[in-house]
Design brief:
The protein is built from 9 helices and 21 strands. With 368 residues, the protein is of the alpha+beta class. The chain has 2 domains: 240 residues, 3-Layer(aba) Sandwich (Rossmann fold), CATH 3.40.50; 115 residues, OB fold (Dihydrolipoamide Acetyltransferase, E2P) (Beta Barrel). It has a 6-stranded mixed β-sheet, with helices on both faces. Strands 16-20-17-18-19 form a 5-stranded antiparallel β-sheet, with no helix packed on it. It has a 4-stranded antiparallel β-sheet with strand order 2-1-4-5, covered by helices on one side. It starts with a helix and ends with a strand. 37% of the residues are buried.
Length: 368
């Protein structure tokens, strides 16, 4: 994507931070957003991530002005916009359906918001050309939406929003209507565009890969509650609870009992794992580790220092391209262990007795 320097400079100057404070929203007896508090920095690419029905789109629409909270407030650039209608919030939203006018050309779709604002025709034409240049669609300005691909329609919706120079850009699952290959291409373009413009952007998705690859920080949501906020790596490596650990990637989760006196975690079904005596392992906590944070070794091989050994038997093998994922039965539990794949190396057979060595430093003890 190309960019006009004047357009980029103007949008970057307008980029604003967002503060959501004490927000509660209910539909009748259904409490949809529960004491939501968030601070999004100017120019940040931020994601609301969570399963369907967790409240992420409701929160996005609240910021846009399409939903009204019973308590709390929304600040954009230090201004309380909670009581303002959508058209006075200086916020631009790209809807999941794109919401393009089918009878209008690409150029007329992009011009629509500018015409509603009563801008002079010369200024409207210039802004339309700038916005379409930005998304490389100026050569298609006279086509109708039905004559465009899904990716092109998404770019038109984005250009229409950018043309009005919003302080904040809101994206409601904008990639969900694209095929897998196109999603990868468009999400990279979105990231490049956001970085060049420096516009504060909130991206709603249920797809952790999308959020991880393009966003600076993520708010993981479930049941109307913000579970944790952080960078993609921080959330993956140091989840705050079992929901975050399980939602972001694959996690082995084992029941057990923390024996504080001996600073050990007794795994239900067999095995014991030491933990630092100073670590506060909550009652009901479970042992959590990622498949790549354990190693498979011959059952009679010596254990490496700093490892806990768990004896098991291979139940199944999955080839994932870059790695082999082994299912291993350990007592009453089954865990997954990833091993890098090297050409020519045959997988271990199902039923083979092996040992799983777990690095103490990478083990987590998390509660719900």
């Amino acid at each position: 994507m190309s960019i006009t320097s004047d357009l980029g400079a103007e949008i970057r100057r307008n980029a604003a931070g967002i503060d959501v404070a004490g927000v509660n929203l209910s539909y009748g007896a259904t409490h949809v957003l529960k004491d939501v508090n968030l601070k999004i920095e100017p120019g940040e690419f931020f994601a609301f991530l969570g399963p369907s029905g967790c409240g992420k789109t409701t929160l996005l629409r609240l910021i846009a002005g399409f939903n009204i909270a019973q308590t709390g407030r929304v600040m954009v650039g230090g201004q309380d916009i909670s009581s303002l209608p959508p058209w006075k919030r200086d916020v631009g939203m790209v809807f999941q359906s794109y919401a393009l006018w089918p009878h209008m050309s690409v150029a007329k779709n992009v011009a629509f918001g500018l015409e509603e604002r009563k801008l002079p025709k010369v200024k409207i034409a210039a802004r339309v050309d700038q916005a379409l240049d930005l998304v490389n669609l100026k050569h298609l300005k006279d086509r109708k939406p039905s004559q465009l691909s899904g990716g092109q329609q998404q770019r038109v919706a984005l250009a229409r929003t950018i043309a009005v120079r919003p302080k904040v850009l809101l994206l409601d699952e904008p990639l969900s209507n694209l095929d897998a290959k196109m999603r990868v291409q468009v999400r990279r373009e979105l990231r490049d565009l956001q970085q060049e413009l420096g516009i504060t952007t909130i991206f709603v998705t249920h797809d952790q890969e999308e959020a991880n690859t393009i966003c600076d920080r993520i708010a993981v949501m479930n049941d109307g509650v913000v579970q944790q906020v952080g960078t993609p790596m921080a959330l993956y490596d140091r989840p705050a609870n079992l929901f975050v650990a399980n939602f972001l990637g694959t996690a082995n989760i084992l029941d057990g009992t923390a024996e504080t006196a001996g600073a050990e975690f007794a795994i239900t079904g067999g095995g014991r794992l030491p933990f630092p005596a100073k670590e506060n392992v909550q009652p009901g906590a479970k042992l959590v580790f990622r498949p790549q944070n354990a190693r498979i070794a011959p059952h009679d091989a010596p254990k490496a220092p700093g490892m806990t050994r768990l004896d098991g038997r291979i139940t199944h093998v999955e080839f994932l391209g870059a790695s082999l994922r082994y299912g291993v039965a350990i007592g009453a539990n089954e865990v997954l262990v990833d091993v890098p794949h090297q050409a020519g190396n045959a997988p271990l057979p199902t039923g083979a007795p092996i040992a799983v060595d777990l690095d103490h430093s990478r083990a987590l003890f998390l509660a719900a």
